[in-house]
Amino acid sequence: MIIRDYNHRDETGWVRCRALAFLQTAYFDNVLTKKEHYQNPSIELVAEHDGQIVGLIDVEYAEEQTVCSRGEGLGGMIWHIAVHPDFYRQGIGQQLLVAAENRAKKLGLNRLEAWTRNDLWVQKWYKRMQFNIVDSYYHVYFEEDELHPNYKSSIPDLYLVNTFAHYVGKNIEQFKDNKRIYECVCFEKFIFLPLNNS
Question: Its Gene Ontology molecular function terms (predicted)?
Answer without folding.
Answer: acyltransferase activity, transferring groups other than amino-acyl groups
